[in-house]
Amino acid sequence: MNTNQMKKQYQILLIASLIFLLASIVMLVLGKGAQAGPFIVTFFLSLALGIRGHVKFKGFSFTVLVFAAVAASMYYPSFFTNVGDFQLKSLIVPLLQIIMFGMGTAMSIKDFVGVVKMPKGVLVGLICQFTIMPVLGFAIASLFRFPPEIAAGVVLIGSSPSGLASNVMAYLAKANLALSVTLTAISTVLAPLMTPLLMETFAGQFVPIDFLGMMISISKIVILPIIAGLLFNYFFHGKAKWLDRAMPVFSMAAIAMTVAIVTAAGRDSLLTIGLFLFLAAIFHNISGYFLGYWSCRALKMKEQDCRTIALEVGMQNGGLASGIALEMGKIGTIGLASAVFGPWMNISGSSLATWWRDKDPNKKTNESKET
After folding, report:
1. How far is the C-alpha of 89 from the C-alpha of 81, rounded, in Å?
2. pLDDT tens, position by position, for the chain (371 residues)?
């Protein structure tokens, strides 16, 4: 298939997405929102495929696909809760373990050596990561007066470590990729201790927290798979190229599936407080970027490091938060915040990274030195 044919197909998909969007709006205006499901889901699917033909918007394709998954799970929750007698939510932890294994295969001891090479950046990044977002989460949950378990979920997403998405955004934003990878690796390894500690401190105001149980759950989801991945990388480095190609695709599919399952489980709660939870997620995420960035600027750090830490602070591991909520037996309530935060985080992170990409970080650093 030549380039012109592909461009034409992308254009047809975008036109189709516009038609399905208009059809969805008409259905909603006519008060037939309950029957608008197929049009809304197809709109997101055709849009996700159509924008892949445009360089500037290609990076948003996965996020739009996640919205398609969310729409499908809201309209047809039964497809994402059970298959016969099998409960789909039991897939969440195994999927996360495979994702973490893939993360381990992409890591090496060099990722942890960054602590020695960039001690200030790592220390500041970790302090910001485990203070700004949990405190914001507690403040936002209290301000919005969410039900206790929903409020605990907002704190949980703030108490989780950063995820792999922040590394991709750091690369796009011309930030310090080495620092980003190091911070993600170390914050993830610290999660079995820090996340339960923060949850007990802040979310304990809303619901009882089993510190030891949560520590064991996170270790099972994160530490063991990462160790297995590191060992795999050490002994089979370069011998399983198919795995390097497959893991990103599998990870994206697993994240979309996890979001759909969590959304379906908490559908009734989302219909009640969904808008407020979405507003809370936007405020939480953007505040994380803002405070992370300007905390570093106040410490006169390099522009690249400021961008990196802003992204690390603002972008949390929503998948891990969902897994923890499942282990707590509260996937339909405590897990909701992560299902809402995740898709929005990818939109905001991509937008911020694209905006920074066109601004020379070295020029910003030189201007700071002059002032």
Report:
1. 7
2. 567 778 888 889 999 999 999 999 999 898 888 889 999 999 999 998 998 888 777 777 888 888 888 889 989 988 888 888 888 888 888 888 888 888 787 777 776 776 677 889 999 999 999 999 999 999 999 999 999 999 999 999 999 998 878 888 888 888 888 888 889 888 998 999 999 999 999 999 999 999 999 999 999 988 888 888 888 887 776 676 777 677 777 777 888 888 888 888 888 888 888 789 999 999 999 999 999 999 999 999 999 999 999 999 999 988 889 899 989 988 888 988 988 888 888 888 888 888 888 777 776 555 555 44
DSSP bridge partners of 87: 82
Which amino acid is it at 144? F
Q: Terminus-to-terminus CA distance in the chain, angstroms?
A: 55
**Measured between alpha carbons, how far is 345 from 166 in angstroms, rounded to an integer?**
10
Strand residues in the chain grouped as ranges (E): 82-83, 86-87
CA 78, chain centre distance (Å): 25
Of all helices (H) and strands (E), which one includes residue 159? helix 148-159
* CA pseudo-torsion sign 40, 41, 47, 50: negative
> In which element (H, E) is residue 304 found?
helix 303-314
Token readout for 60 is 């948003």
How far is the C-alpha of 115 from the C-alpha of 122, rounded, in Å?
Answer: 6
In angstroms, the CA 169 to CA 356 distance is 10
Rg, C-alpha atoms of the chain: 21
| Tokens (6 digits) for 77 | 């929750």
CA distance 319 to 342: 8
Enter the pTM of the model: 0.84
